UniProtKB/TrEMBL annotation:
<feature type="transmembrane region" description="Helical">
    <location>
        <begin position="190"/>
        <end position="212"/>
    </location>
</feature>
<dbReference type="InterPro" id="IPR040884">
    <property type="entry name" value="SLATT_1"/>
</dbReference>
<feature type="transmembrane region" description="Helical">
    <location>
        <begin position="32"/>
        <end position="51"/>
    </location>
</feature>
<protein>
    <submittedName>
        <fullName>DUF4231 domain-containing protein</fullName>
    </submittedName>
</protein>
<dbReference type="InterPro" id="IPR041116">
    <property type="entry name" value="SLATT_3"/>
</dbReference>
<keyword id="KW-0472">Membrane</keyword>
<keyword id="KW-1133">Transmembrane helix</keyword>
<feature type="transmembrane region" description="Helical">
    <location>
        <begin position="57"/>
        <end position="76"/>
    </location>
</feature>
<feature type="domain" description="SMODS and SLOG-associating 2TM effector">
    <location>
        <begin position="13"/>
        <end position="162"/>
    </location>
</feature>
<dbReference type="Pfam" id="PF18181">
    <property type="entry name" value="SLATT_1"/>
</dbReference>
<feature type="domain" description="SMODS and SLOG-associating 2TM effector">
    <location>
        <begin position="165"/>
        <end position="288"/>
    </location>
</feature>
<keyword id="KW-0812">Transmembrane</keyword>
<dbReference type="Pfam" id="PF18184">
    <property type="entry name" value="SLATT_3"/>
</dbReference>
Length: 297
């Protein structure tokens, strides 16, 4: 077996690191903004409830709503969600193209022409992605487009390339999909339980207030909590993520079997089958992005 075990993130073109970093920053900023806005809305509901007992608290309600408005304006103006989605899409596309080139998958099959010409086509695609990418948030890089490890993997016999690809890409990605599917299922169930508890608390609070058993009407606060929970789960889409990752994991398992059974004497067959595996991975990323597109929300 070759001494080159797999591709590391540092072996990928610098555009990958720049896009992945921009995506991570966008995600952190977007999720922080959503948490802050929902927290302020709930705070407004709580202070509004308490204002019935102490009128001066109404100012806190106004401030909380104003703060939520400012956060919403920030999200609409800065669009950290787009930085998250588009950054991930760009990073995953660069990663997929690099793996295709490294292991000789279509359209960069080893049999498709001299390495210099195929490398030129690969660089052209990376250049096209850079031109089409949003310039904001993309950091400068000093990394080469085709690193030494990528070249070493491409120069190996097809049996070595298959072993590297199966372990470093297919199995690793399949394991990640399966793990994310399980996490999504657990979080979706947990949020359903939490929201059910809020609804029960709202019902009991409203009944208690109607009967005079409690002095405060908790129904508005509970409704705000339910609404905040619904908004957060809509942002994270745990159910949809679990289904998407589960499907991709099973689909990749089928392609993995094909890769293991492939006739290694046929370089063109290897190139097409490895490209099929990459198509599964890129399809998952496209589905993930489409599910979070503003047009679908």
């Amino acid at each position: 077996m070759t001494e080159v075990e797999s591709l590391r993130e540092s072996d990928l073109p610098g555009l990958y690191q720049a896009a992945a970093s921009a995506s991570s920053r966008g995600r952190r900023r977007y999720e922080l903004a959503i948490r802050l806005r929902l927290g302020l809305v709930v705070a407004a509901a709580v202070s509004g409830m308490l204002a019935s007992l102490k009128g001066e608290i109404a100012a806190i309600t106004a401030l909380a709503f104003f703060g939520a408005l400012l956060v919403e304006i920030y999200v609409l103006n800065d669009r950290p969600d787009l930085a998250w989605y588009e950054g991930r899409a760009l990073a995953e596309t660069v990663k997929s193209l690099t793996w295709r080139y490294a292991v000789g998958a279509a359209p960069f099959a080893v049999s498709s022409g001299p390495d210099k010409a195929v490398g030129g086509r690969f660089r052209d695609q990376i250049s096209r992605l850079l031109k089409e990418s949003p310039q904001a948030g993309i950091a400068p890089t000093e990394s080469p487009v085709i690193g030494d490890r990528v070249q070493k993997i491409r120069a190996r016999p097809v049996a070595d390339r298959r072993a590297i690809y199966l372990r470093g890409r297919v199995v690793d990605q399949q394991r990640w999909y399966a793990g994310q599917a399980r996490i999504g299922e657990r979080r979706a169930t947990a949020w359903r339980v939490v929201m059910l508890l809020f609804e029960v608390a709202g019902f009991l609070g409203a009944v208690g207030y109607a009967l005079g058993a409690v002095a405060l009407d908790l129904s508005g606060t509970m409704a705000a909590l339910v609404g905040a929970g619904a908004a957060w789960t809509a942002t994270r889409r745990h159910d949809l993520s679990a289904r998407t990752y589960s499907y991709a994991s099973n689909e990749l398992s089928i392609v993995r079997d094909r890769l293991e059974d492939i006739d290694l004497s046929d370089e063109a067959c290897w190139a097409d089958t490895a490209a099929e595996a990459e198509n599964v991975i890129t399809s998952e990323n496209a589905a993930w992005r489409a599910a979070r597109s503003p047009a679908t929300q």
